[in-house]
Amino acid sequence: MLKFSYIFLFMFTAVAGLKAQDSSKLSQTPGGLRNSVLFCVNYGRQVPVGILSNRFGGSNTVGFSTSYKFGNNYQIQAGINTIFSGKVKENGIFDTMVGGSGYLVDVNGNLAEIKMYQRGITWHVDFGKVIPINKFDPNSGILLTAGAGYMQHYIKYTFQRTVLPQLEGEYANGYDRLTNGLMVRGFAGYQRIDPKAMLNFVAGIEVLNGFTKNRRAFNFDTRTADNTSRNDLMLGLKVGVMISISGRKAGTSKGDEERYFD
Predict the structure, then answer these.
(1) pTM of the model
(2) In the 8-state DSSP scheme, what is residue 168?
(3) DSSP string for 215-252
(4) What DSSP line would sit under 85-137, residue for residue?
(5) Which of 7, 11, 102, 159 is deepest in the core (most CB within 10 A)?
(6) Cα dist from 188 to 15, 75, 146, 153, whole Å
């Protein structure tokens, strides 16, 4: 999986090495280059790759980010997303709870119904650049960003309470596979800041690579501690809608223009 880390390094180098656009010329186009604060609500659909695909299926993310786009179209941003899915593929978790009948039975002697879900969270800080593709819309274009953050995921169980003491309270921690660690992130897509204040959006491909470990001291089902370093990779599509608070045009003095909302 190290090759994916090289992808992030390449994206960061590409972003950092992009030549600045000629701001003086772009400022003469309708609207001109502007400093902008962006508030974005987003949705993503992720596919796990590698060892993560042995535990979970496809997942969804919903989140929020805040960005600042400078007048030269460089951009810095921070975001947080929740991860949720009903596709858990981890096998054998309940084997130690199953009796001679081969079924999981609750304290009332009934067959227990347990549902498993993926839950998690990511946060990140990125740096990148907007590359305009239309001289009449210099604040929009291809957006490339790279950054770092944090990834966490675990298995959530739902069942009728008080009937499965094996999964109640602290006992549940021995089965939830709580896993977290540092993460690197890359994004390539298109960002639109509408000069007519009609619709602002961003859409593109996101790559998340977490360098994680199981944080529980002991897995009850395997009766061992899991100290293995993991490389959790997710690839996905992300779309978001934004509110833009635009400042003065690039190259103008403070107070020359009033800010406005898009």
Answers:
(1) 0.81
(2) S
(3) --S-BTTTTB----EEEEEEEEEEEEEEEEEEEEETTP
(4) ES-B---STTGGG--TTSS-B-TTSSBP--EEEEEEEEEEEEEEEEE-S-TT-
(5) 11
(6) 10, 13, 9, 24
